[in-house]
Amino acid sequence: MSSTATDTLAKQSSEEGEIAGGHSAATELTDGFHLIIDALKLNDIDTIYGVPGIPITDFGRLAQAEGMRVISFRHEQHAGNAAAIAGYLTQKPGICLTVSAPGFLNGLTALANATTNCFPMILISGSSEREIVDLQQGDYEEMDQLAIAKPLCKAAFRILHAEDIGIGIARAIRAACSGRPGGVYLDLPAKLFGQTMDATAGEKSLIKVVDPAPRQLPAPDAVARAIDVLKGARRPLIILGKGAAYARADEEIRALVEKSGIPYLPMSMAKGLLPDDHPQSAGAARSLVLKEADVVVMIGARLNWLLSHGKGKTWGDQPKQFIQIDIEPKEMDSNVEIAAPLVGDIGSCVSALLESMGDGWTAPPADWTGAIDAKKETNLARMAPKLQNNNVPMDFHGALGALRRIIKERPDAILVNEGANTLDFARSIIDMYQPRKRLDVGTWGVMGIGMGFAIAAAVETGKPVLAVEGDSAFGFSGMEIETICRYNLPVCVVVFNNNGIYRGTDVNPTGGPDVATTVFVKDSRYDKMMEAFGGIGVYATTPDELSRAVNEAMESGRPTLVNAVIDENAGTESGRIGNLNPQSAVSKK
Ligand code: ADP
Ligand code: MG
Fold this sequence. Notes:
The protein is α/β, with parallel strands linked by helices.
């Protein structure tokens, strides 16, 4: 506890003692507010993302007074998304702080999304009086928050007594970070904050969590089995997922890829773990390698919908064996049979594989790697001219070609990306060169992460952030550009404005006065929103204008929003996942 806070409380307690009769020895007191702050700081947690209000307003103030960075948002969902991605970027749980009931509910989408994506975060919400809530007597913002949070996160705890704060925070940190990371809910009833206790006892009750994410070594026989399967491969493939990026085993992974000579495919957020222009990247031959591979090594990636569940047309008829590295044993066989499960942390598992491979590892057959190289060359050659086009209005390729060149020149910038077409095209067009630089919609494909992710990326890394947003996606978190301006963060938002969801050309089939359900105000000026808060707004109609504006923003670090005018005919329904959007075949009269 800081000396100022302790002094104030000690003074208070002695004054009270004097009023009560003047004979009590002044015991130093601490309280719930300070114990929570001290417990977080003791565990090297220095940043809180939240929205102030009852009953946590003073908590936020005190945390700031005690030297924590407290970033206030306009809506809890974005504070939650910021906390989640801060967790991904730092391996420490990101903290989101909200008020009770409605604020808590607003934070839940982010908590559930963090859990789904395996990002460590802790949602801390104030809550109303337990006695009244449990008897359902109608308290201010009455809600049984703990019960509601439980199914949406990895673990949920409530702390009722000041002396339990140390344990409560320690449990929350461990639950968030250990094993498969995820979201944790921590319920703090209003009464807890003001509870006092002896300061020395309070300090002793706090816990500095030792080794919050312990390494988990794979069993030697599991390693041997994996090596056996790998040795039998004629067309091996490595798939890197965001778990691999999160694990920060960058060197080991590079060594495994290069020593084995096996082509690899990065999942979206694993792009840059090895540079996308690495000769072994099969990114530009994705369809081919998924269909033709005979042994697939999954490293921190799941066989969920993003990989067509490991079966069907995407994977072709070629029989396949899977080796899967994951810290979560239950992940194995979740979609298809895993021939060689390797359960443990990625760093330890990859090191064990490297060691067992020995020195004389034979590279994959040349007909396999040759076929991949040929396919890559054809695909890249076909793409190149599209990325140079100067069409006005811009299409996705022309605009993204410009941004691709910027990221190539600034590989340490962080790219945030969401939308439908804007997401799909940017993912394949913009190459990444460094680990953990691409942040996007993740496992759910959720819209609305944009500004929250961008803010946390800037706060946590201090690097310039480029957020490439569909106009629809931007709308979910757009108000947070005020937050970006308020903290003067080096964020450049590019809104791909094609007047609507998917595209801006739909019409109301009834001919009635309402516009179609997917259409927005034509030629909206998102750039003026940024100007309203003191940031820089740019209206860009050509790839050159777009380039210039983004380069200037990255150079100056000033909050910037570029309204990039995109041809309203350019998008397709749901981007590349239109197959997931059921369409009625029945036409009614
Ligand atoms: P992607 O969407 O990129 O394919 P997923 O989020 O589906 O990636 O998969 C990430 C996987 O990584 C999860 O199954 C998670 O359990 C695993 N994981 C996360 N951190 C580690 C780690 N340190 N060691 C091993 N596995 C991890
Ligand atoms: Mg759009």
